[in-house]
Amino acid sequence: MASLQLSENSYLQTAESVTEGHPDKLCDQISDAILDAILEEDPLGRVACETVATTGLIIILGEITTSCYVDIPKIVRNTVRDVGYIDDEYGFNYKTCGVMVAITEQSLDIAAGVDIALEARESGDSGEIDLIGAGDQGIMVGYACNETENLMPLPISLAHQLTKNLAGLRQNNVLPYLRPDGKSQVVVEYENGKPKRVDSVTIAAQHDPEVSRQKIESDLRELLIYVSGIFYNKLY
């Protein structure tokens, strides 16, 4: 999220969310599907898998160590199909896209740290806790708050709600001209640390080029923004 200070006591906070057809989200879903498939067969498998997508091509990169076999190209195509890229007119098609797999086994240096902890290797201690090695490290920062029932800040909560409902309009064929890619941005004004009003809402929706902008805007206002309970200048 991003913030813009308006005065000593007020500021704007912006959050974005994307639908399942957005390239970033598509890549996440493919990597997750590969991980799920391996862990289903090999609970001790190690998967450091990344997905890269460009027009007409998906590349699977990373290091995987497992005792099982999974059909990665098939997993990729099934995921792309389930997301909704089923026609060349959408700019991507699960049937015709290229799939490149560049996977190697986990490096020996990383495996050494994951298999057995440094303390166990140096001291020979075979205690259950001491044997646990370190996995890949990461630092995440976040917080829960009481602005919404889901304990998320209001801007990101509204943005997620919009993209979820936007995807639903396509999946349920309410707006058949919509396509898988989409994005929402919500700006909320805060005063004295509390949400005051929705300042602006932006929706980007992939769509059939034959449908007019006026119709899309009208439909999304009525069937998405208002149905989601989001009104400009609404006081919270």
Can you put this structure into words, describing what you see?
There is one protein chain. The protein has 236 residues and is α+β, with helices and mostly antiparallel strands. The protein folds into 2 domains: 2-19 and 143-225, 2-Layer Sandwich (GMP Synthetase, Chain A, domain 3); 23-123, 2-Layer Sandwich (GMP Synthetase, Chain A, domain 3), CATH 3.30.300. The chain has helices spanning 23-41, 72-83, 108-115, 118-123, 154-171, 213-225; strands at residues 2-5, 10-18, 46-54, 57-65, 86-87, 92-93, 98-104, 178-191, 194-207. The strands form 3 sheets. The chain has a 4-stranded antiparallel β-sheet with strand order 1-2-8-9. The protein has a 3-stranded mixed β-sheet with strand order 3-4-7. A two-stranded antiparallel ribbon has the order 5-6. A hairpin with a 2-residue loop joins strand 3 (46-54) and strand 4 (57-65). The chain starts with a strand and ends in an 11-residue tail after the last helix.
Q: Over all CA atoms, what is the radius of gyration?
A: 23 Å
Number of helices: 6
Strand order of the largest sheet: 1-2-8-9
**Beta-strand level of the residues, as a percent range?**
25-35%
Fraction of residues in helix: 25-40%
Uncertain segments: none
Integer tally of domains:
2
Tell me the series of helices and strands, N- to C-terminal: EEHEEHEEEHHHEEH
The class by helix and strand makeup works out as alpha+beta
**Beta-strand segment tally:** 9
Identify the CATH class of the largest domain: Alpha Beta
Give the distance, in angstroms, between the N- and C-terminal Cα atoms: 19 Å
Examine the coordinates and then state which fold CATH places here, giving the name of the CATH topology of the largest domain. GMP Synthetase, Chain A, domain 3
